[in-house]
Specification:
Elements lengths: L16 H19 L11 E6 L5 H12 L3 E5 L12 H11 L2 E5 L3 H11 L2 E6 L5 H15 L6 E5 L5 H12 L3 E5 L8 H14 L2 E5 L2 H4 L5 E4 L11 H9 L6 H7 L4 E4 L10 H10 L8 H4 L6 H20 L3
Parallel strand pairs: 1-2, 1-3, 3-4, 5-6, 5-8, 6-7, 8-9
Helix pairs in contact: 1-5, 1-13, 2-13, 3-4, 5-6, 5-13, 6-7
Length: 331
Amino acid sequence: MADLKGRSFLKLLDFTPEEIIGLIDLAAELKAQKKQGIPHRMHTGKNIALIFEKTSTRTRCAFEVAAADLGMHPVYLDPSGSQIGKKESIPDTARVLGRMFDGIEYRGFGQEIVEDLAKYSGISVWNGLTNEFHPTQILADFLTVRERFGSLRGVKLVYLGDARYNMGNSLMVGCAKLGMHFVACAPKKYWPNETLTAQCRAIAAETGAVLEFSETPAEAVRGAQVLYTDVWVSMGEPDAVWAERIADLSPYRVTLELLERAGGSCVFMHCLPSFHDLGTAVGRDIHKKFGIDCMEVTDEAFESPRSIVFDEAENRMHTIKAVMAATLGLH
């Protein structure tokens, strides 16, 4: 694969299709080695900082396990564990951490924060999620899709729900880069912004990708290999938006009927966590207020054989490992 040593992984727009495929190939190789019990401690003695302004189960576990497998020591900084942006500016924090660590992961708010960490730290920085982009998730998603269908080119992926933020944005970029068929299916006000869409259309013109936007689920899913969704209200948004989102997005809920309408090979994907039942405090609160027992996906669809969400969740670790291994230098 291409030499990515010293690069940061901030958004897929920064990488060529060949570089993205190279990272997916490396993830598959490292996954196979882990399954076979073959050690790959290629970065023994290195230290990385994990900055989490937004908490996460999968992202934290993926980075910590991947770091351990590579022989590295991760230091976790939660919202109360650093002065980033409070008593110390982002540039100052970056320059301090850059003197102590070999790499920095950031999961939090604006994309400009992770960009500044990369600009000022002098070391590799990895985006664990910002409001605008979630690139490590997309690598995991695409590894999972390739494992299922054998290739990525031409695969039709329909994203149902609020496509304005990190997941809708990143899936659109990833599909454009890799010559896939992306459909955002939602009310028009929930489509990705026009600037990013124009960028992706230009990329699609080079790669042969197809980008579509629809307000009609029954039509949008026809012939799809993947139906993808995410929670309707993101971390940090006020509770007041629940009523509006439920009213606007309930017609875009993924159901078993919608999966069957898509076709016999269609699978369901979700970056998790998911509100598919009453097993969470949020789910129970929404049920009490609005009388619904699921949100973006029904429990029947989530638990069906078509659901590959836990393959996808596992692949977070393998693809994150590939990103760290490649940007810190393969040897």
